[in-house]
Amino acid sequence: MVPDSSVFDYFEILEMPELKGVIWLQTVTDALHSKRGWRYYNKLRSLLKDPSHECVLFANEYHVSCYHAREKQTLKKDWEKRIIYAAALWYYKHCGEKIPIIIVADEDSTKRYKVKSKGVYVMTFKEYLNKFYSDLEAAHNSCDFIDEALYEEKLESLEASGINYNKYLPPDILEAGLKSGRYVEGILYVNKHTKMEAFVRVQDTDQSEEDYEILIDGINPRNRALHGDRVAVKMFPESLWKRRMGADHEGYSEYVPTGHVVGITQKHKRDYIVTFPSKEDILYYSRKTKKYLAVPWDYRIPRIRISRKQAEKYQFCRAIIHIDSWDTDSRYPDGHVVGTLGTGGDLEGEMKSLLMEHDISERPFSEAQMGELPVNTAEKPWSVDHEEQDRKDLRKTHLVFTIDPKGCEDVDDALSVRTLSSGNLELGVHIADVTYFVKPKSHLDKEARARATTYYLPDRRYDMLPSVLSSNLCSLLRGVDRYAMSVIWELDMTTYEIKKVWYGRSIIHSTYQLSYEAAQELLDGNLSITGNIEEFQDMEEKEKEDRLQELTWAIEKLADIASHFRAQRGLDGALDLDGIEISVLLDEEKNILDLVPRQQRRIHRMVAECMILANHWVARKIYESFPRQALLRRHPPPRQNLFSELKQSAKAGGFHIDTSSNRALALSLDNAYDVSDPMVNKLLRNMATLAMSNALYFSTGSCREREFHHYGLGLDKYTHFTSPIRRYADIIVHRLLMAAIAEDKTKTELNLLSDRCLEELCDHINERHRAAKLCQRQATELFQCHFFRDKDADRDERCVADGIIYAFRDTAVQLYIPRYGIKGTANLKTKDGCVLHFGANGEKIGWVPGALWRSHKQADCVTSSGQGVTFRIFEHVTVKISVQAQQYHPNSLRLEILSKKPYLDPEARHTPKSSPSPTRELVEENSKENIPEEYRQFQQTKGESLYTLLEEMKNLAIQDISNNL
Amino acid sequence: MAGLELLSDQGYRVDGRRAGELRKIQARMGVFAQADGSAYIEQGNTKALAVVYGPHEIRGSRSRALPDRALVNCQYSSATFSTAERKRRPHGDRKSCELGLQLRQTFEAAILTQLHPRSQIDIYVQVLQADGGTYAACVNAATLAVLDAGIPMRDFVCACSAGFVDGTALTDLSHVEEASGSPQLALALLPASGQIALLEMDARLHEDHLEQVLEAAAQAARGVHTLLDRVVRQHVREASILLGD
């Protein structure tokens, strides 16, 4: 046994007479001498002199084959490790390669030198004791004790010293530095996956260059900046630039600039959600400072120190915390509690945390705001004012109808189409006239601006406007007169060329309020659906038929027009991109019934196309009238390096994706269609969507015209006009449009915002939209977790599903589960070097030590016994879904590959089994009682296998013909 | 003497030598063209240069001339940068004078001065880096330089220092060992005859141990002799090859 210099801590154990045969190296004794002083050294000397110990000292540094010069810039510790290892190796050879040599070392060097050569083993002291002196009670006891003491000491030293941040530069120097270009300024983003890494996104001052990112590697260079802060950064010279963590060898291996934070120009002011650890958890407790450490909900925020008094009060709670300060000599910032959200874990509490985290207001509207609303009570219902002279009355002339999701209350868009006397078509898009009720600078307006958007969560909604407006007075409900903003086009009857556009305020009367499903049925010519449409229920048979015909014609015509415009946009490079969206089915008690991916039908596209058309034309109009202060929406082209994963995956699947322009991308995505597996195309599209940058609102005065382009839609100008009930940007656009068409400009233009104000507003709206999107996503994930949490992952059939591999990571595969719309990673290799092992039938057997090779096309797991398994891209596997519970952070889903075969439906698998085991029956019976009635029904209707079979047959037929041709 | 262990239990010294080991010696003769003889020596980290002029007429006052033998004039200096702490002046201080005198005594004993009556031999020695055993290095360098000048000598003069730690004699002390304050002895030997040219010790040492230390120093000096002899032969061989063609 050769001890390392780290074992001095265990010296008293080494002094025990039972431990024999220790080779002390000169390197180690020297280190002992310099670190611990004479007393220990003399102890060691007497130990060596005592023949009963059978210890020797080997002067390895004086031995020609054991000495290595310490290279420049290597730490003494590393050098010591190396030289000790070399000496042990020499000793092993010296003893005729017969006696194994064991190096006893601390943990990190154990990891580093493990299994490097035969005959020399590296292990920690604990392991050593366990292996060779397992019966030596006293040694084990003291070892445990010492371990504990060491751990505490380490924590304390971490807390107290170790970290010493640089002071921030004074503001005047900072400003001068920023102006001269010595420092650059940007917003700090912490990497979600590795806390140690952060980026500063720098917007170049001269607009010619693209934005670039500076890597802030480690805690010290970040210098106490938090996620979201606007910081000043000093760049390091090029020699210190680094590769990005996680970037694989074949991928973009370019070096990115690095730097360190010299000052914070603007703090990201917000409060954080934290969880307090339990009292027993000494890990987060420091005796010296009398502070506890609370763990933030967000992974990207460091732990926060809270005074002990407060911490004890809020044990196990989710609490809201305000960060007060962060001293240069403290590892963590100080904070205090400002409120609590209840204990973690339940759905309501988690939702509250989510809202808080995204700064979403759930306050009710104040009285002053409600006071501005028009009166609408049962006795005194609100009605349109017939004195409004300048409104175009469309009530009698136009057939207006709305198409929305089922149960939708805030209907803000309506459609109409009719044939003019000249034979041309007239298409109308009518949008709820919110600006009539929400006057500029009113309380309501201010509140709406602050909220900026309505937040849709799986089980609830936070409105931007009070419900009186959003679901009643503004909402274009069936059978009542409503104010609207209309855009009406006159189209050529055959070519659908736009001849004339009219914008203006109107009064409409919606006749039908259709759901997407009903409209789709009508479009498909399935007239039996009429029984479900309320409007037709109390009508004469004859009249009903006429009306139905009229409506069907309108919808068909609209679909036709829409597809024409869609095709036109396609030529300009519009992309067909769908994100994967999941809707959560809930019952009355808000229990989660099921998760279903949302479906995109033709009717959805038709409505969307009409809205895009309206938005586009409004954008043209307001830009024409106000070239310097119009609010438009742009979608910058994505950065090419973000496409690399898509390209690699597609290439591995045998497709080529051209990302040079949006047109090329759209074309190549259309071509990348695998006849045997339609999911492949969907996945590729989804990956393309992920690579896109976000669309943004902007003021035309702040941007050059060529940057107005909307990449995804392939339009040169675009804005949001069609949903004023749930988006504040649309309200602004409405006001702009009103000003643009008003005859008396002086009056209306007073209410318009200047370019500068508009830009600020845009930033705010963009930020809120991002928060809304993120919140929605996280809420969906939350619901997913809750759905699977109560299920027993080992027994419940619903926790097993079919997954498709779409990318490879270092030790894992990325999977997409179409059944639930879940994306995630499944491990192929564990941290201790075990890989998945499959039996001959493709079923998983367990984890065995082995190795993993991966390329972009496939990953091979090879066990140490030589059996291997290969995963190819776009391969179907069976996946088990379970929930990984976490105390401090939101729960997450864990995926596990169960079998290499595609997942078959439970019914299909169970049929051959004639007699299920009695225990299984019992389990099934028990579980049946817990499942609500509706769900059981649902499960029975899940006959997917036959459908897929038919689908396959269809595809085969297509293939045959093409082959014959 | 806390803090340093000059000789470990295993018999190693601070720099890894055994008790009787010498430091690495490297030397060159004939390093300057304009001098009659010159040499450069490295003993471990101690580096010294020696230059010899003469025998020539007495310079300065003629009264110093000796009627029956040559006058040996030695000057010792050590570079200002030679020690860890920078020296103020390179020569002329008491220590330099003393070392100069010691050198003179040494070489008067070694050089056949009676062959050059009424003339003068100058030996200038400069220490470039002092890491213990400066006197020994100077003597060894000067020997080589005198040999290079072709001045007849009885024998090589080989010098070495020795110390005494924990009942063991250490040879060729380094600066660290010298500074520890243990007794230290400098010996200049004429190896062939075993005669002692100079023996100097300025600390107390029990008489019983003296023999042991002296023997260790003499042994080391003989070791130095073989090394120097090799250097001289190498130099002569190179010189003869140059003259040969």
What does this structure look like?
The complex is a heterodimer of chains A (965) and B (245). The longest helix of chain A is centred in the C-terminal third of the chain and has 35 residues, at 755-789. Chain A is elongated, with a radius of gyration of 34 Å. In chain A, the strands form 10 sheets. In chain A, strands 11, 12, 13, 14, 15 and 16 form a 6-stranded antiparallel beta sheet that branches. In chain A, strands 8-7-6-9-10 form a 5-stranded antiparallel beta sheet. In chain A, strands 18-19-20-23-24 form a 5-stranded mixed β-barrel, surrounded by 4 helices. In chain A, helix 17 (602-625) crosses helix 21 (728-741) and helix 18 packs antiparallel against helix 20 (679-691). By secondary structure, chain A is α+β, with helices and mostly antiparallel strands. Helices cover 35% and strands 23% of the residues of chain A. Chain B has one domain (25-243): Ribosomal Protein S5, domain 2 (2-Layer Sandwich). Chain B is globular and about 55 Å long. A 5-stranded mixed beta sheet of chain B has the order 1-2-3-5-4. In chain B, strand 4 (71-78), helix 1 and strand 5 (119-129) form a beta-alpha-beta unit. Chains A and B meet through helix 3 of A and loops of B. Chain B: It is found in: Cytoplasm; Nucleus, Nucleolus; Nucleus, Nucleoplasm.
